[in-house]
Amino acid sequence: MTARKKKIHFISLGCPKNRVDTEVMLGVSGLSGYRAVEDAHDADVVVVNTCGFIGPAKEESIDTILEMAKLKEQGSLDRLVVAGCLSQRYASELAVEMPEVDHFLGSSDMLKLGAILEDPKHAPRMLVGNPAEWTLRATDPRLPSLSRHSVYVKIAEGCNRTCAFCAIPTFRGKQRSRRIDDVVAECERLVAEGAVELNLISQDTISYGRDLGGGEGLAELVRRVADVKGVRWVRVFYLYPETLKPALVELFASHPRVLPYIDMPLQHASDRMLKLMRRGHGIDRQRKVVETLRTKIPNLVFRSAFIVGHPGETDEDFEELVRFVEWAELDRVGVFTYSHEEHTRAFEMDDDVPAKVKKARSRKLHAVQRAITRKKTKALIGREVDVLVEGVSGESEFLLEGRWWGQAPEIDGKVYLANGTAERGEIRKALVTSAAEHDLVADLADAEGLLPEPPPGAKRVKRKEPLRLRTL
Description:
By secondary structure, this protein is α/β, with parallel strands linked by helices. The protein has three domains: about 5-130, 3-Layer(aba) Sandwich (Rossmann fold); about 150-375, tm_1862 like domain (pyruvate-formate lyase- activating enzyme, Alpha-Beta Horseshoe); about 380-470, CATH 2.40.50.140. About 30% of the residues lie in helices and about 20% in strands. The chain has 13 helices and 19 strands. The chain has helices spanning about 15-30, 55-75, 85-90, 90-95, 115-120, 170, 180-190, 220-225, 245-255, 270-275, 285-295, 315-330, 355-380; strands at about 5-10, 35, 45-50, 80-85, 105, 125, 150-155, 155, 175, 195-200, 235, 260-265, 300-310, 330-335, 385-390, 400-405, 415, 425-435, 440-445. The strands form four sheets. The chain has a six-stranded parallel β-sheet with strand order 2-1-3-4-5-6, with helices on both faces. The protein has a six-stranded parallel β-sheet with strand order 7-10-11-12-13-14. A five-stranded mixed β-barrel has the order 15-16-17-19-18.
């Protein structure tokens, strides 16, 4: 009789970079003879890949670990493994405070999961190593977990920046860029497996290649990835606001497969705060970067993020930030409330902005940006856009859903396709007929690119609000 194949369940918390790490562990588990299941209650082993970036993320990670520990107490789970940034950052504390966890892996110990799965009785409990010891390689056994049509590609590990609010370099290590040939090899494999959208990510993407020497920079990497046969969309995440090389800007402006989508966390817009945050530039250069990108990249979609309530932020600093957001008219903005994190430069300062003031500033900045985002989204009504079809909508079995190229995976909303048929992974033209703050409704073109014709004598009517759309 064949032995029962053991089952494993993964929970991936935090950023897309963490998800890539989870997908490596998913590949390792397959090589170790385990079958992945969607429900933790059905699993023999659960792996929680944690985030340790800021307070709310740490709380979510701890709550998730404790929830899985209850399953173990109830006898439905044999082994609980905790991996990622939280265990890297607080290894000794977690080892004492969470005796219910069987094994700990750090932020660069994904491949060590095999030792746990293959010989759990003899595998050490603490497998938290030096974060600089591992950099993802094309030969690592990674299995994409969200969609085979749209995947993340991690091009580097770690970060060399010293931003005052950020502890990531302390538990992710210094920047380690992958070689271009290695990244391209992974992209070729992913495209052969069905990927049409490749999303390039790292902690500090603009610095890619600076640790390698030999001319391996971001522009050359993006060009090589975009030239992979079969890829349709290449998206670049997390650019730092410094002067971008003309070759890179030209790729965003004119390469048919490099999307004119910029994700650039700016963090603030007051000279005082940019200095306190140790961002390495002032507002004049920041404005120049935004102006240059807007001028030189046609149809640019620009996403950013800002922190409110950082130590030392005055009402005047915050109002400068508001004026900048009003001036820049960015397409989308994430607003984060400052989290006072140990092992950062800002932790040495007084956390002097009251919690209620932080919340008020966050609400105001959200409101300012919400009006800008709504205006930009409404301007898409009547336009034809290319949409990556992702399948049947969760809103209704009679709708398809997808994303137009100006919507990044998981963070920028959906396009609901109100008619027609298409396969998952197809990129099809659609006519936008309605818009909410983040989501769109569109008529899907047929396979030849033709849109549905209205009845004789009738005009196409733009729907007002045919279904409830997200307004987060």
